[in-house]
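One such shown below:

_____
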Amino acid sequence: MILPVVPDRALTELGRTEGGPETLGLLVRDQYTRRLLLLRAVLDAVEAADPGVCSADARARLREDWGLLEEADRVEPPVRRGGWGYEDGSGIAGVSRTGPWTGAGAAPADARAPGGRAVADPASATYGQVAETASGGGPGVAPGPGAYADPDGPGVYADPDGPGVYADPDVESAASNGDSRVGPRSVAYRAVGAPVSEGGGDVGPVSTTGAGRALAGVTLSPVRTQLLHPFVGPWARHCLRGLGAAAGPRAGRDGRELSRDLAYFGALAAVLAARAGVSYAVRLRARDGVLTLPSLGALRTSASGDVPVDVVHRRGILTLRRRGEKNIVVRLQGGGFGAWSEAAAWAPAYALPGLLPGSDPVPLDDLDPYRTARGGPQHHELSGPVALDDAERKRWLQSWSGIASVLRPGGEHRVTEAVALLRCLVPLSAPPGSTAGGRTTGSCSGTRREAFGALLSSTPPTPMTFAATLVHELQHTKLAALSDMLTLHHAGPQARYFAPWRPDPRPYDGLLQGTYSHLALADFFQRTALVTTHPAHRDSAWAQHARYREQVGAVLPALVGSGDLTAQGRRFVDQMVAVYERLAEHPAPRGQTARAEAYIRAARALWTQRHVPGE
């Protein structure tokens, strides 16, 4: 087994909240390989599932969908022989051309539970505020014996000024039987078609031509690009949970949910085949009256519930047919994204322009059923997903336009990481209590660990707010991805640490995540303040810098003083300390610093009063 290796240079760059193209490419390659491993696990789990869980008809339909997907992939294969498959060119995600369950494409044995049931990697199955699940596992944490994190568990890192976690209300582990799991660093590279260069080695650095072409040295077909979309991760985990269900009173409900999950793959295959120019006629199924065609749009049927929709594709035109209703004609747009129809029942998918000239558009996805965790947000300070109207899309575009010019004063590396890591944006509604007098005064944002590359946010009020959101959330993305590749510490999940940006005690890993993102913001706003000539903008940047720097300074001793850090974790935290100390070379104005210090004192006093007995 070839394990991912994190060079010292990459660890140093990431510890500084930075990351050059090669380092970011390392994270992206590992996450993409894990996503392909999940896809392989779903295919194998379908084969191994009890007939009472996954019927023969459902299995046959998935085979048909996979065949359509492979037909689409053959239309425009990667330049390199084998592409994302095996060296012998076996197929997508290492799946044999003879079918998803035969030939050289079988998933690695260590990715299966007893009896052949595929399971997911616990490190990539721990989401949300990191290491907050009761399992004891978490990114950068070595899970204890028998521990397995919920594959659909808490799913969002919270806004820096307010806690918030998405959680699945029906928490069930896909590997509830014993300690069958893949460890945080045990991805079987090449076994599932890890990306390699034409020379056979690792892929080169990340390209700045867009997230869709993030891996230099490999030409990805549209099919393989879409299989690496962020929402394929949560979809696969939903499937694994359903496929791992045991027969019993819940079997009927679980079977219906699994049927819906597998139907999504049929819609995905239909979209990719249409993009590749393959003609076909298939029957899909709308979910709760909505048929979502990923990256194209959604059809809202007049009937509620799960409604069959016949889809016919010919030469870039989709005809959607429903019994007793008028046909809907949808025309594919160029550029690999979006489709349009004159029918009011059709809602097209939208995307924002690329961050840089020549970079890929960034989908603004308010349609995909897997864009947020099942059940929606559970925390009272975090809002839920929202469908945008034209006015809201315009506000998103206004905040997004020129955002590169807002990021760049805070460091060119902030632009680099945004281009390399950001794959899509998910709109959220305004957070509770943030709207007054018809104006929205607050915002919330987050990332989902199982949806690497996706960023969730309410409508950013200004480009600067949007830029700060990107800086903040992409640090969570980087640190979570790094923690999938190595163990930074062995601290447990006990929530006992003070963090001035949260009212509640934090576990060590949550403290590390928050400190890391706040350190990046302190650095970003200091760099911005030093080059900004507009007095009001400069004062605002210094105020933000002072606050974030004082927050970091209040918790660094707890991070540094922990005996649970590994050798690599120690090097990582030492680099964070070096950045913090470097910030002192250009201090904020005294007034800004004094206000930030007073804020920290007040926050600590209130926290101590609430959480320290006898105080």
About this structure: Residues 79-90, 95-218 have pLDDT under 50 and may be disordered. The chain has 14 helices and 15 strands. The radius of gyration is 24 Å. The longest strand covers residues 307-314.
